Amino acid sequence: MTTTTLPTLESKADTGDIAIAFDELMRAFDAFRQTNDERLAQIESRFGADVVTDEKMARIGRALDEHKALIDRLVLKGRRPALEGGTTATLAQIEHRQAFEAYVRNGQDNGLRRFEMKAMSYGSDPDGGYLVPDETASEIGRRLAAISPVRSIAAIRTVSASVYKKPFAVSGPATGWVAETDARPQTATPTLAELQFPTMEIYAMPAATQTLLEDAAVDIDAWIASEVEAAFAEQESAAFVAGDGVNKPRGFLDYDTVTEASWEWGKLGHVATGADGAFAASDPSDVLVDTIYALKAGYRQNAHWVMNRATQAEIRKLKDGDGNYLWQPPAAPGGRAMLMGFPLVEAEDMPDIGSDALAIAFGDFARGYLVVDRAGVRVLRDPYSAKPYVLFYTTKRVGGGVQDFDAIKLVKFGTA
User: Which domain holds residue 61?
Assistant: First the structure.
């Protein structure tokens, strides 16, 4: 049996060296390939796969996940822009920032009251909280786009109303060919329908000590952005995948699905694996090929795979007819793993492989799924509910749903 030394994570997070972390990811993948080839050879023999080999495969799979997560964290850390940098702030932005900092640190809201009266802001009062400075709201949005899987590939629209309404043509206008001197008859009127995307409130409530708030060296804007990003991203990610649309966005898995041969507008098409709760026993990768080509050519140019970590672990074991692995690690730090030439996005809220589970999605999410953000993030300072800590009730409004039902296809682990 071949002995393979697994790369470790030891101090790479401390050094922040992306190149070293990426090199170890590639070494882990090489070890994975060698061990899986050994496992397949054992299966083909009359003795079957060795238990030790299976355990080693699982261990290397976990190492791959850990190395990829480490690289993602290092890349995200490097991409975070400093709130103080950038373009020159206007007097109004400076005033808003100073007033907001006085409110957060000391509870003094007179400056914010005057500023928002001057700016004619609506819905921002001591009961509902105050709008954070624009640069803080932008920073929160950037961080969410970086760590929220579906948001990172979906279309995003910022609105000022509570509902975004998008018209679409059910049947386009009639057209035809005519000669140069022929009469041009009037065309039929197109039939329009409307999609509605209401925005729902999402909140986080970070806490701080008064000592932290009184420390002038602490960047309050950066602190709030970092505290709420994980809470917002976790709730958003779950809703964008499987939300039921009740007080939250509607996830793409909440819509009705039909077999691709029976696809119609308003439903998502799926391709079945042919086996209940598993890939087909023979040629298991065929369903992935069928899914790719179920998507029209215009959508495939910007298509992504979406699945969770457990499903990705199964995908890593698949090969094509020439013995090449279908799953490939990122080509560079900060890149995405590739599956059959298309980038793969890991979304833990996708279901595991199981009976009739829709565990894999594939499509152009920038055209297929729309995230609607209502402009503004609000913060309400609460020094009373959890004394001696100060709570910051932070809210934003977000909605989402499928906007093009032909742009996303699903893989169903079932027979039909």
Answer: 12-79
Q: How many degrees, rounded to 5, is the angle at CA 308 between CA 370 and CA 344?
A: 65
The verdict on residue 32 lying in a domain is yes
The predicted model scores a pTM of 0.74
The whole-angstrom separation of Cα 101 and Cα 79 is 25
In-domain check, residue 19: yes
Number of domains making up the chain:
1
Is residue 62 in some structural domain?
yes
Q: Tell me which residue of 250, 243, 189 sits closest to 403, measured CA to CA.
A: 250
Contacts of 224 (CB under 8 A, 6+ apart): 104, 132, 136, 140, 206, 379, 392, 394
Q: Is 360 helix (H, G, I), strand (E, B) or coil?
A: strand
Query: Does 306 fall in a domain?
Result: no
Q: Please, which residues have CB within 8 angstroms of residue 275's CB and are 6 or more apart in sequence?
A: 281, 413, 414, 415
Residue 412 exposed, middle or buried by CB count within 10 Å (0-12, 13-18, 19+): buried
Q: How far, in Å, CA of 306 to CA of 287, rounded?
A: 15
Q: Residues with Cβ < 8 Å from 27, sequence gap 6 or more? A: 7
Count of beta carbons in the 10 Å neighbourhood of residue 90: 10
pLDDT (tens, 9 = 90+) of the chain, 416 residues, equals 445 555 444 444 444 567 777 777 777 778 777 888 777 777 777 566 677 777 777 777 777 777 677 777 666 665 554 444 444 456 677 777 777 788 888 777 777 776 665 554 444 444 567 787 877 888 888 888 878 899 999 999 999 888 999 887 666 566 778 888 888 777 776 667 788 999 999 999 999 988 888 887 788 878 888 888 888 988 999 999 999 999 999 999 999 999 999 999 999 999 999 999 999 999 999 999 999 999 999 999 999 999 999 999 999 999 988 889 999 988 877 788 999 999 999 999 999 999 999 999 999 999 999 999 998 888 888 999 988 899 999 999 999 999 999 999 999 999 98
- CB proximity list for 30: less than 8 A, separation 6 or greater: none
Q: How many helices (H) and strands (E) does the chain have?
A: 12, 17
